[in-house]
Design a protein that fits this description.
This protein has a two-stranded antiparallel ribbon. It contains 17 helices and two strands. It is mainly α. It is 65% helix and 4% strand.
């Protein structure tokens, strides 16, 4: 019952997380589009009352006229719309999922027993949990300090962008050295997602509140609050596509089990940022196809890097005779797989077989043959290699033909 309750909580939290993320990202992309799509107001009375830009739009059978003021309108309404709870809900639900899925069983999901760094490979579960929390907090601190020190007055944002890009390369590399592959991808995305939410909580909303307070008091708001809020909002929009990809990466073992998983992460992060840049410029009326072209080229490089090697196939071909029979394969599956992949799993934390894959009978094993060979060859299964499947055993399953 406990495993079922945890799994159901995971199910509902994931639903909430996705809904909140869709709402937050959708609103964020809309406002970036709106800000970049503004045109100089045509009406003289609008210019006289301080309107900086405007946009006319049609949607859902109606017409909309959006206006942005350069400083402050003559009067603010009492029902001013604020955008922050979607961001907070996304992060809080995502962190709750991380606790349930990873921190509740860190030795299984966080620790990388094959890490090149011996201290990382030998981490205890509680140590891995503390390291993961420090990784998230450290990522935010480093990013925030870079923003404050490199471009405090928003006058060197280009240099800051280069610094943030370098930081993400370092984050991707460190995550794959310290954590298991799937957790590494997730934590790299979580570093960016944490920065996004923290930008809203610590900078964007407080700055907006100070501006509103000053305007209601009849004072001129500090222009740095507006500039800083826009700086952090721009960073958030470039983080968006890479974060979404990294958060869904746990379904694709070819990426996070690869020897150069950190390189794949970097390629995907830069590709997402470049593709997002195309749309940002498009809303400004600038069509520059070179950005998505380079983004797609980086994805193509990632495809080439992640392409499976022939090592496992060669090992399988070295097995003499007609290859292993179903009896030998069944013995290996019973040893390494059935604890999770059964009608009634015996592995703690599972109330049902993952992905619905079961090996309770020879018929079921034969039905899952190709899928089994694929995940075993990639190293995705057994998950975290918790049962210590050897390369020789993987070669046996790969050589299985009948």
């Amino acid at each position: 019952m406990q495993a079922y309750l945890v799994e159901f909580a995971n199910f509902m939290l994931r639903w909430l997380h996705v809904i909140a993320a869709i709402a937050w990202i959708g609103e964020s992309i809309y406002f970036v589009m709106l800000d970049n799509g503004l045109r100089k107001p045509k009406a003289a009375e609008d210019r006289e009352k301080g309107v900086f830009g405007e946009m006319w739009a049609v949607h859902g059978g109606g017409f909309y006229h959006n206006q942005k003021y350069a400083t402050a309108p003559a009067k603010l309404p009492d029902d001013l719309h604020w955008s922050f709870w979607k961001a907070y809900t996304t992060w809080l639900s995502g962190f709750a999922l991380f606790i349930i899925l990873y921190m509740a069983n860190p030795s299984f999901y966080l620790v990388n027993p094959n890490a090149n760094w011996e201290w990382a490979a030998n981490l205890a579960g509680w140590e891995a949990n503390l390291l993961a929390l420090a990784f998230l907090l450290g990522g935010w601190v480093v990013y925030n300090e870079m923003c404050k020190r490199i471009s405090p007055n928003m006058e060197r944002d280009g240099l800051l962008s280069v610094g943030v890009a370098v930081m993400m390369v370092v984050v991707a590399y460190l995550s794959t050295q310290m954590f298991s592959g799937r957790a590494a991808f997730l934590l790299t995305g979580a570093v960016m997602a944490t920065a996004m939410s923290a930008n809203v909580f610590f900078w964007i909303i407080p700055g907006q509140r100070r501006m509103v307070k000053a305007m209601k008091a009849g004072e001129a708001p500090n222009p740095l609050d507006g500039k800083r809020g826009k700086q952090r909002s721009v960073h958030n929009t470039y983080f968006t596509l890479p974060v979404v990809l990294l958060m869904i990466s746990n379904h694709y073992s070819f990426a996070y089990t690869h020897e150069y998983a950190w390189v794949l992460m970097v390629l995907f992060i830069f590709a997402g940022a470049l593709i997002r840049q195309y749309f940002v410029l498009m809303h400004q009326g600038k069509i520059q196809p070179a950005y998505p072209a380079v983004g797609v080229a980086l994805i193509a490089v990632a495809f080439w890097v992640a392409m499976p090697s022939q090592t496992a196939s060669s090992s399988a071909q070295q097995i003499e005779g007609d290859g292993p029979d179903i009896t030998e394969v069944t013995a290996l599956i019973n040893q390494h797989c059935v604890a999770c992949h059964a009608q009634s799993p015996t592995q703690p934390g599972f109330s049902a077989p993952p992905a619905g894959v079961m090996y309770d009978s020879v018929e079921q094993i034969l039905l899952q043959k190709e899928r089994t060979q694929q995940v075993v060859q990639s190293g995705y299964m057994p998950l975290g290699n918790m049962t210590n499947m050897t390369d020789e055993e993987r070669a046996v399953i790969q050589a299985w033909s009948e």
